[in-house]
Design brief:
Blueprint (H helix, E strand, L loop, with lengths): L10 H5 L2 H61 L3 E6 L3 E5 L1 H7 L11 H13 L3 E6 L6 E12 L6 E8 L1 H46 L4 H28 L7 E4 H19 L1 E6 L6 E4 L1 H18 L4 E9 L5 E7 L27 H11 L3 E6 L5 E7 L7
Parallel strand pairs: 7-9
Antiparallel strand pairs: 1-2, 1-5, 3-4, 4-5, 6-8, 9-10, 10-12, 11-12
């Protein structure tokens, strides 16, 4: 029996075997895949890190954007002017609280706005100039003036965006109107003072001639006519002096004067006026020989104004009493009391205001002038009255040694 031994194989032949080649290729491919996987893992880690950084930046950006939007919202809400944002020509996207107040409500479409405002917005957009217009406010019978200014927010896009600034200029309009009224009133004051000054000189001459006629030996009927002329001239003189004293009053020329003589003058001077008004005049004079430091002509104007005021409100006749009392160191008091219709309680706070009067056609200057003259003398004037029960005016003047 013979023994056989396997033949040694050639290594080169083994490497050429298909399985060997396939295994080698698989091993190489597996190594390549492993390396690629490692690279992919590294890239994934890097991308994850970049994504985390981007997410953090985006979160910070979103938070900052939210804060900015919140700030802008608060700024819009706190602005003293109205902001109206209009997109696409007619859609209103933003109305801050001041704009809602000025417009009287919230609007989403421009077509719903009041036509005058819509026209003003269009004109402001076309001209670029600020427009002013009156708008009815939420309060009854009150109009607010609004100024409208336009600015383009986005003009190049297909749907342009406009922002309108609305300002409440009502107070400025009121101030402008008040200044204009003041200018007109100042012009009227200057004109009235000039006319009063020009009238006073010939009026004084007429009063003098009327007085001479009253002293002449005239028949009874002629004397009555002269008294009527005197009454009319003295009334006109009081009006002229009121205008001058109220609008151009220098400091009084004070000197020692006898208050009793002032009351005696009042009786003689006012008697023709009282007769014409069918009023019984009474003067109770207990001040003869009592001296104060005052401007007599100004105090004469005060008594004349108070008497004329009483006569005008006693159209059917009545009674007027002027009484003087001496309070020694506390000064003197002159009261003027009438039986007229009295003064309504609601009118008492206003009767000394220039221009206030409850009688049609009256200038409302008499009592204002009285108060001004008394204040210049360091005195006071007060009134006691009830509707239907007459009125009593009390003048307090300091004595020479009293408070000034």
């Amino acid at each position: 029996m013979s023994t056989s031994f396997p033949l040694a194989q050639d290594p080169a032949a083994e490497s050429d075997h298909p399985l060997a080649r396939a295994f080698a290729s698989f091993t190489e491919a597996a190594g390549s895949l492993e390396r690629t996987y490692g690279q992919l893992q590294a890239q994934v880690v890097h991308l994850r890190q970049e994504l985390e950084v981007t997410n953090r930046d985006l979160a910070r950006s979103l938070e900052e954007n939210r804060r900015i939007r919140e700030r802008l919202r608060r700024i819009l809400e706190g602005l003293p002017c109205g902001v109206l944002l209009m997109e696409g020509g007619d859609r209103i996207s933003i109305l801050n609280p001041e704009a809602i107040r000025l417009l009287g409500g919230s609007f989403e479409q421009a077509a719903a706005l009041p036509p005058p405002l819509l026209a003003a917005l269009q004109q402001a957009r076309e001209t670029g100039e600020e427009r002013e217009l009156p708008l009815a406010s939420g309060e009854p019978d009150k109009t607010a003036w609004v100024a409208v200014r336009h600015a383009w927010l986005e003009q190049s896009c297909s749907e342009p965006t406009s922002v309108f600034i609305l300002r409440d200029v009502s107070e400025a309009k009121k101030l402008e109107q008040a200044r204009e009224n003041m200018r007109r009133q100042q012009a009227l004051v200057e004109m009235s003072a000039l006319l009063a000054h020009e009238i006073r000189n010939p009026l004084g001459s007429l009063e003098l001639f009327a007085g001479l006629l009253a002293e002449a030996d005239l028949e009874e009927e002629s004397r009555r006519w002269v008294e009527h002329v005197q009454a009319g001239l003295r009334t006109l003189s009081a009006t002229v002096n009121n205008v001058l004293h109220l609008h151009n009053t220098p400091q009084p020329e004070c000197a020692p004067m006898d208050v009793g003589q002032l009351l005696d003058w009042a009786y003689e001077f006012l008697l023709p006026l009282a007769k014409q008004a069918r009023v019984e005049l009474q003067v109770i004079n207990s001040l003869r020989g009592v001296t104060i430091h005052a401007d007599r002509h100004r105090l004469e104007q005060v008594l004349l104004n108070l008497a004329l005021n009483a006569f005008r409100f006693m159209a059917g006749g009545g009674w007027l009493s002027i009484r003087g009392r001496d309070f020694a160191a506390d000064g003197v008091e002159i009261s003027v009391e009438d039986t007229g219709p009295g003064i309504a309680e609601s009118d008492l706070p206003y009767i000394f205001q220039a221009g206030f009067s409850t009688r049609p056609g009256s200038s409302g200057l008499g009592l204002a002038v009285c108060q001004k003259i008394l204040e210049q003398h360091g005195g006071t004037i007060g009134v006691e009255s009830r509707a239907g029960s007459g009125a009593t005016f009390r003048l307090r003047l300091p004595s020479p040694g009293g408070a000034r």
